[in-house]
Amino acid sequence: MNLALWIAAGLLAAVALTGGVSKTFVPKERLALVHGGGWTADASAGFVKTLGVLELLAVAGLILPAALGIAPVVVPVTAVCWVLLMVGAMITHGRRGEVSLVMLNLVYLALAVFIVWGRFGPEAFTD
């Protein structure tokens, strides 16, 4: 189970890294042209960049605390934050009628819930 939790955290970290880099460093006008990025046309550049930075922080929060053994409780806390982010993403894409993206966000949400359950529960990091 520990391995499955690490794999789930790694997958979410990869997703967060991809989204974080694109939202932080790619202009929102360019993001609005790609599949799934249309919502950025209705958002401020600051909001898009803030989401990007939060996703980059999620990368660190999902991996580094456990890998370094420093405050590993941050891992499931980060996963809880990811759940909230995915709920917002699902609402945003749902309002735009982007059902396939809602389903993809649901998969990410499920991975995060698995991490929350596993790291707060049976495979919690203990000092």
UniProtKB/TrEMBL annotation:
The chain crosses the membrane at residues 56-87, 99-120. It is a multi-pass membrane protein. It holds the Pfam family DoxX_2. InterPro entries: DoxX. GO terms for cellular component: membrane. Signal peptide: none annotated. It is found in: Membrane. This is DoxX family protein. It comes from Streptomyces actinomycinicus.
